[in-house]
Design a protein that fits this description.
42% of the residues lie in helices and 16% in strands. The protein is of the alpha/beta class.
């Protein structure tokens, strides 16, 4: 029997997680297929094509090569799944299944909302169809040159749901952000279909606004109480649930067999555990390296000790680096090493005590990781080999850095216990909060 081709069709696919997802769903031969536009037609005519997912920039282009297009995909105007049956190429859109699953999982409603969709490509068509299906009150598509564009966003300041379907902020160009959310003061939800990194800058800004609002309303208030006080949470989601669920639906079409929905959550959990960085921050000497070693043993993730890597790069101990080149040179090297570490996934990263001083560092840690602030009594923190700890009062340093640790961290962890206990708590917390 002729071997069939299964895979993801696109132009540049180095960022894709689709192979591991489809292999987990049972398609062991799934692969990445990178083609230039002039290669598309010949490839899609191949009789050994079994099933393909389609991504940027071909979701509309492949429609011209389909013999049959599912009515739902035809209505959307975008195809992301191709299946060859009995010599004919069938086109479907499973993105909408994934998009609606993602919204439901994050408890985001589009019903009777003003929805602003950033971008006008194939993914935008899917978001638009979902908004129509969910009976949004108003749907606005923002493009670079259309009547609604990035120069006249102010006319849509009343938007309640913001959906990003552009690649702005996607790995490897993670510093980008399509819009400033401060321009949408009534936003209740932010949906970013990007899944790599876990949290884009747009997602991080939504988190920051939500956190600020919670602090203004009172940190102790429950969700219902915050809403009674007029402070509504900004619900938010990245694109990983959409990616996994649309892949599940595509597999059903490839092989004609139903797959239970719980498989989506099982794969999400595995990806979250495998690929999320665990980042440890805290005062110098609070035990980040020791807890990091325990986490590496517990999880099987490699440990990146930022200070050790800095010493290796500089070719000298940190006290000597401080003495010869000053703190500024140290912080520059620290930021560079951290950015490189955070560009990888599935690691334990033990940082230096002052890594939180730079906002770009705080963003880098949060984008691809879950950040834990280790807290230990100041009177037991060692000072030897730590230039800044020896320089002045640890209490003063702590009070200056405390709001920065709070801004960087997802959770704080009491490290007046054993390192093994702290590591176990961190791992349990990460596993219990998939994608949150």
């Amino acid at each position: 029997m002729e071997e069939k081709i299964y895979g993801l069709l696109g132009r540049k696919l180095g960022h894709s997680w689709s192979v591991s997802i489809h292999q987990a769903l049972g398609c062991k031969d799934y692969r990445l297929i990178e083609l230039e536009p002039d290669e598309l037609g010949a490839f899609l005519k191949r009789e050994d094509v079994g099933g393909l997912n389609v991504t940027i920039p071909y979701k509309r282009e492949v429609m011209a090569f389909c013999d049959v297009i599912d009515p739902a995909a035809e209505a959307i105007g975008s195809v992301n799944t191709l299946v060859r049956r009995e010599g004919k190429l069938y086109g479907y859109n499973t993105d909408i299944d994934g998009f609606l699953y993602m919204l439901s999982r994050a408890r985001i409603s589009l019903t009777d909302k003003k929805v602003v969709i950033l971008g006008s490509g194939g993914a935008s068509l899917t978001a638009r169809a979902a908004a129509v299906q969910e009976k949004a009150r108003e749907i606005v598509v923002i493009s670079r040159s259309g009547p609604d564009n990035y120069d006249n966003l102010s006319r849509h300041a009343s938007a309640e749901v913001i959906v990003n379907t552009t690649p702005v902020g996607m790995w490897p160009s993670v510093e980008g952000q399509p819009v400033d959310l401060e321009r949408f003061p009534r936003a209740e939800a932010v949906v970013d279909i990007i899944y790599n990194p876990n949290r884009t800058n747009l997602f991080l800004q939504a988190e920051a606004i939500d956190k600020k609002d919670r602090l203004l309303a009172g940190e102790g208030l429950r969700l219902e109480e915050r809403e009674l006080h007029g402070v509504h949470p900004i619900r938010r989601t990245g694109g990983l649930p959409m990616l996994v669920h649309q892949a599940k639906r595509a597999e059903e079409l490839f092989f004609g067999k139903p797959i239970p929905d719980y498989q989506t959550e099982l794969i999400l959990a595995q990806l979250w555990q495998d690929r999320t960085n665990i980042v440890l921050v805290g005062m110098p000497g609070c035990g980040k390296t020791t807890v990091g070693r325990e986490l590496a043993k517990l999880t099987g993730k490699p440990l990146v000790d930022l200070d050790e890597e800095i010493v290796r790069r500089a070719g000298k101990p940190i006290p000597e680096l401080f003495a010869r080149e000053g703190e500024k040179a140290f912080r520059e090297l620290e930021a560079q090493v951290l950015a490189e570490a955070c560009a990888q996934s599935g690691q334990v990263i033990a940082t230096g005590g002052g890594v939180v001083l730079r906002p770009e560092n705080r963003a880098a840690m949060r984008r691809a990781g879950r950040v834990y602030w280790l807290r230990r009594d100041l009177n037991v923190l060692p000072k030897e080999g730590r230039p800044l700890s020896q320089k002045g009062s640890l209490e003063e340093m702590y009070q200056m850095r405390k709001p920065l640790y709070e801004a960087a961290a997802d959770f704080w962890v009491d490290n007046n216990q054993t390192a093994a206990e702290a590591a176990q708590w961190i791992w349990s917390e990460l596993c219990a909060n998939i994608g949150h």
